[in-house]
Amino acid sequence: MTQIKWSYSGLKEYINCPRQYHETRILKKYQKEPTKQMIYGTEVHKALEDYVGEGKPLPYNYQRFKKQVDSLIAIDGEKLTEFQMALDVNKNPCAWDEHWVRGIADLVIKDGDTAYIVDYKTGSNKYPDIKQLQLMALMIFAHFPEIQIAKTGLLFVMHEHFMPKEFKREDADRLWRDFQPDLERLKLSLENDKWQENPTPLCGWCPVKVCQFHKER
């Protein structure tokens, strides 16, 4: 029986193009070169993590985000920054390297039976990906049995825009089922070693240059 290992970003990459997923994440023949936007996003995440978690002053270039993040700091509860979560196939917490699924939440605030989960975004807010929050909420429910409600949100810091989504523990089984079709597809690809190319407008950013659909930007 084929046992998959996944993360939200990995599953999303597989959905976008199975061949790219296979070449970069399984065979590791190619690596994505970080863009300026990716590097900037990493720097902002680190600055916000240090500010919230350790009280380090925000660098001058990121002072523009202070008001938004201060509103999160003002929420009562225990704050966990860059919180790593891993679950085994039975959806129980496990070691990071022994995962069935794993992910990192930018900020978790635990307050009684409620958890606030925030994911920082430095890109556009035109196409929000709420399903990422859904997985984070499910993993929080697994790690903290006392949590009954997950109030999640995408914080688009460049646009001062917050997109909230609330999840309840009682809906967990249904929420997990939303991922099942894509996970079944991934499992079949692994079992049959079939990785179909999927041409999209993102082909110009793909590192797999031997693909017939690759095109230079």
Secondary structure topology:
Elements: H1 8-16, H2 18-26, H3 36-54, H4 66-73, E1 78-87, E2 101-111, E3 114-121, H5 130-143, E4 149-156, E5 161-168, H6 172-177, H7 180-192
Parallel strand pairs: 3-4
Antiparallel strand pairs: 1-2, 2-3, 4-5
The unreliable regions are none
Structural domain count = 2
What is the CATH architecture term of the largest domain? Alpha-Beta Complex
Q: Remind me, CATH topology of the largest domain? A: Lambda Exonuclease, Chain A
Please give the number of β-strands.
5
Series of H and E elements: HHHHEEEHEEHH
Largest sheet: 5 strands, mixed
Strand content: 15-25%
The span between the termini is 41 Å
What structural category characterises the helix and strand content?
Answer: alpha+beta
| The level-1 CATH class of the largest domain | Alpha Beta
The percent range for helix content is 25-40%
> Which overall shape is indicated by the principal axes computed on the Cα atoms?
globular
Q: What is the tally of helical segments?
A: 7
Strand order of the largest sheet: 1-2-3-4-5
Rounded to an integer in angstroms, the radius of gyration calculated over CA atoms is 18 Å
What value does the average pLDDT take? 94
Give a structural overview.
The protein is α+β, with helices and mostly antiparallel strands. The protein folds into two domains: 1-33 and 180-217, no CATH class; 63-178, Lambda Exonuclease, Chain A, CATH 3.90.320. 36% of the residues lie in helices and 21% in strands. It is built from seven helices and five strands, in the order H-H-H-H-E-E-E-H-E-E-H-H. A hairpin with a 2-residue loop joins strand 2 and strand 3 (114-121). Helix 1 (8-16) packs across helix 2.
